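ok so i was messing around last nite and threw this chain in just to see what happens. nothing serious, just curious
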Amino acid sequence: MISSDKELGRKLREVKDCKVRTLSSHDDHVLNKRQESYEVGSEANNEQPNVWIPDKVLPGYKEFMMEFYWECSKASHRILAAMGTGLRLGDPKFFLKFHSGHNNQLRLLHYPPIPAADLQDGTSARMPVHSDWGSITLLFQDDCGGLEIERPDAPGHFMKATPYENAMIVNVGDLLMRWSNGLFHFQKSIDQLN
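result:
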């Protein structure tokens, strides 16, 4: 939900400006990827400093986002420790040595309206088929949904990831797949029109 104020939510959905990146795949097919994003990281990471919306524009936003950032970091630590236990590592917290929280990224994504014909003919995409490069990704969907995950039994075929209120999806990334020698493996995902 964009806002509890339905009129404000309607107006925000009408905003047309968005980041458009043109991607070229191995078959030279050109694809416009349309999304808006806002990214937050650790305040201690001086190499990639946060750019904050002024507090007078959105009061409390910075504090809320930093608290959420660190709550997600704590959740990822619990998940990684559980995975270490599942792999029967000598030290179940082995993965935590590589996850200080200061190099994480919290990305808020909004996919603006795209004509259905552009999605169907393949000239535009919200988020093309991809795998995540890190260890794990925590995903929170709104009630619009759109996330699809590659079926493990049918590569190249995708199933909808139905959004559930207050639920989190954990994607295994390329790095954790490699670290676990394939015991944990990623599923490619795509964001489609829902």
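not much to say yet. The first strand starts at residue 19 and ends at 24.
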